[in-house]
Amino acid sequence: MGNSVRVALSAIIISGAGCGGSSPAAPDAADPPDAAARLDAAPGDAAAPDAAAPDGPPPAPMVTIDTNSAPALVAYRLQPDGAWRTPTASGASTFSFAAEQPYTVIVVCDDNHGFVTVDQTSRAPSDGAEIFAFCESTRPSNVDVTGHMAQAGQVSLGSALRALSTTPDWDFTLQPSRGVFDLVASSATRIAIRRDIAIDGPAALSPAVDLAREGADLVATPFEVMNATVAEKVASSVSLSTPTTALVSLYDGDPRLTVVAPESALRATDRQSISVTASDGASKRAITRDAVREDVPRTIVLPAALDAAHFVPESDAIGGAWSALPAHDTLTLSADAFDFRTEPSRAWFYAATMSPAFERATGATQLVLDTSAPAFKPTWKIDVSREYFRSFSAVLKRTTERASSSLTETLHRDGSLRPAERSAIEHTERRHRALRASLGR
Which fold has domain 139-217? Predict the structure, then answer.
């Protein structure tokens, strides 16, 4: 697999992992995006609405969209008229509009080097006034970092694809961007974290990673699933994120054999999560717990399945439909696709959310990825005749955990992909899905 593939698939932005619920940085003052990527503004959208007259109706609530850096496209439409409109720009990455009715917002980010993300949000005016969609301004420049590990296991550094080996005494090469990162190395039984490694160019790590000399034992933390069916395959997965190196997989397997990183290896700013999933074909039920430590509760009660939901036909759109749903506070729809035929290789990541208030107000019974905005480019669309992944979920956030009921599947699986390409796709998709979950998408 060439460097272009590694770079394209390692461009999951670590800073995005901390975006959920935080206040984004103030945008730089700049001109709005190119007019070619904008829609004709509907009457009244050119400026914020005037304050209502004393005896008139109150002004419509304003919704603010923050995209971190300039998006390729931002548009919204109100229900029930459905006409796409351009929000008012107050900078290169900040936009607003009056939301007197339920609405859908779409934000497209295109780094012009093969990496496209599309965020779609459907809400009601009562759902809140801020939408954040992370756009990467530039593709980071990656460098080679080499090293040696004494045990069989894996090594992660920054946003680079992890290196792993099933045999001991092996050499590895990672390709992080420039910056300061934590090195996370683990085997089936131990973990070590080297903090604050500065990478400003190609580097050789020293000394060699030797888990017998550094680090700590992983701690057995068995989980019991109370309500899995006989037909379901149950598994748990543990991931660890430090402030600079995100979503390192520590365990995948039988919940009764789960291991986690010990308190002694972690800092207060590290986040360890466990997901317990029961799968039956395309149907999945899962519980995810963040801030996992050694004394985490050990019993799992899974949510109800999506028995009354299905994917819409491919000929219509990428989407999910339902006649009934489990308890939820968000509906999510995602789709991922990769193309190794081009140089550099290309990747598409779509994520859509819908709030219960939008469902109730509009009577919605389906959530589809909407690419109908006039300025939506054909190159931003997923080719549904080729391999792609899709997922539809009902998500309920509780105080200490997140419950999700999902339908997931990969369509038109490409048998011509090389093992390294398949591994890169699976690793990147796993990281991106976990990142979406951490952002509530």
Answer: Immunoglobulin-like (2.60.40)
